[in-house]
Design goal:
The protein is about 35% helix and about 20% strand. By secondary structure, it is α/β, with parallel strands linked by helices. It has a five-stranded parallel β-sheet.
Length: about 150
């Protein structure tokens, strides 16, 4: 039996949206896979300017607590999770360099409001050499809301 593919799932405000849940379910159907949800921390207010690395973890932990059970149900096996750097590309690079992933799923807000898409996160992540699937949420979901 082949070794399960290791899939890095990257999301924050869209971690518990139907589109991402369906993408994980579809990937699990295609073959054995282990999923890990990476939630970049979120800088607020003046922290975005003064010290973007000095951010709380409460919001990210709430996202993990809300999304992990739903993603686990979609995957058919336990999905693990962790918080990453406040800069999403840095969080992904850290995870890829420290882990051993075969592919990445990135979930973003809709194009008109997504900071990640304005930063060209999907193409920059593809430059890491792994297959990347992009899932765009159909609606804006506040972080921590399941």
């Amino acid at each position: 039996m082949p070794e399960p593919a290791r899939v890095l799932v990257v999301a924050h405000q869209t971690a518990a949206t139907q589109g991402l849940i369906e993408a994980v379910r579809e990937r699990a159907r295609r073959g054995p896979a282990r999923f890990h949800l990476l939630v970049p921390r979120h800088a607020h207010g003046m922290h975005k300017v003064v010290d973007p690395q000095d951010v709380g973890e409460d919001e990210g932990n709430d996202v993990l607590l809300g999304a992990l059970p739903m993603l686990t149900g979609a995957a058919g096996s336990e999905v693990t999770g962790s918080l990453g750097d406040a800069e999403p590309l840095m969080a992904i690079q850290d995870a890829v360099h420290l882990g051993s992933y075969d592919e990445i799923i990135i979930s973003t807000l809709p194009r008109r409001v997504s900071r990640w898409l304005k930063l060209d996160l999907v193409s920059k992540t593809r430059a890491l050499g792994l297959p990347v699937t992009h899932v765009e949420a159909g609606e804006r979901v506040p972080a921590g809301v399941s």
